[in-house]
Structure of Probable nitronate monooxygenase:
Amino acid sequence: MSSALTDLCRYPIVQAPMAGGASGPELAAAVSEAGGLGFLAAGYKTAGGMYQEIKQLRGLTGRPFGVNLFMPQPAYADAAAVDVYRHQLAGEASWYDTPLGDPDSGRDDGYEAKLAILRDDPVPLVSFTFGCPTPAALSPLKRAGTLTVVTVTTPEEALAAQHAGADAVCVQGIEAGGHQGTHRDDPANDGGGIGLLALIGQVREAVPLPIVAAGGIMRGSQIAAVLAAGADAAQLGTAFLVCPESGANVLHKQAMTSPLFNRTELTRAFSGRPARGLVNRFMSEHGPYAPAAYPEVHHLTSGLRKAAAKAGDPQAMALWAGQGHRLARDLPAGRLVEVLAAETAAAGSALALRHPA
């Protein structure tokens, strides 16, 4: 890992920024305090909400942390297709006794306002998802001493991040839970993502930037594997989602290891953008017909998902999860960092014994 990024954490363990409530100040603080790198998810929050969480996190730890931003999305969704999907969801709205949301509730997630706050009150690291920021957006952050990371899913996206001036890339394999961080959402590429180990190798040959590897990582042996493959650190989301400090709904946490949910798929059912989650009734019924329309579908189904959670029904919740979800361990976040670090060291030692220099 480059010296600048190495200085941010004792261990090469990054807690993924999981938007929707899981990655709040308590989780980020616990991870950073234990020697990992905690992350706040600013996605789906107002600029003011993000600022308040940063203040809260600073009150919990003096160690470095990151903040993740969603890039504004281009307006290319088919309005007619969104309207058809709205009618298909009418039965869900009736069942959960809640209105469907307004698909035109906003496309930019308060991006410019959040950037302005992060320029004026810098944090150690800022990462970007769903696109590549411009050099004009990254330069002021860099001048303020903030390291910048861009999520990529292909070598071409990594090259774009390098050209924009990013300090590092978060390489996201197809195994990852939650949304795929592709820079352009092309339905023609659905299901065509690259596995993490193969992607690390391709990105390593494409750009010289430090790599944070993400996608299905749940154990220290897997962290050691991605480090051996060329990554500088590993980012884990699902592994931290079940921790007591996580703000994820208890039904979501329980579903990770429940025998009722034994596999994951990529779906557009909940947000209109490919995202990996546990297969439930809503995904099975609506996934095949959900349009490529983010964030329109996200806004449309937001109330339904909240109503289902309130009703205690995980069958209509977005149960985001990586492919390794069955390996989730219900440990305090700080303890999980310690266990992962010990496992990583043990795996590295075992590899050295098998293949001495």
Observations:
- The longest helix spans residues 333-354.
- The radius of gyration is 19 Å.
- The chain has a mean pLDDT of 96.
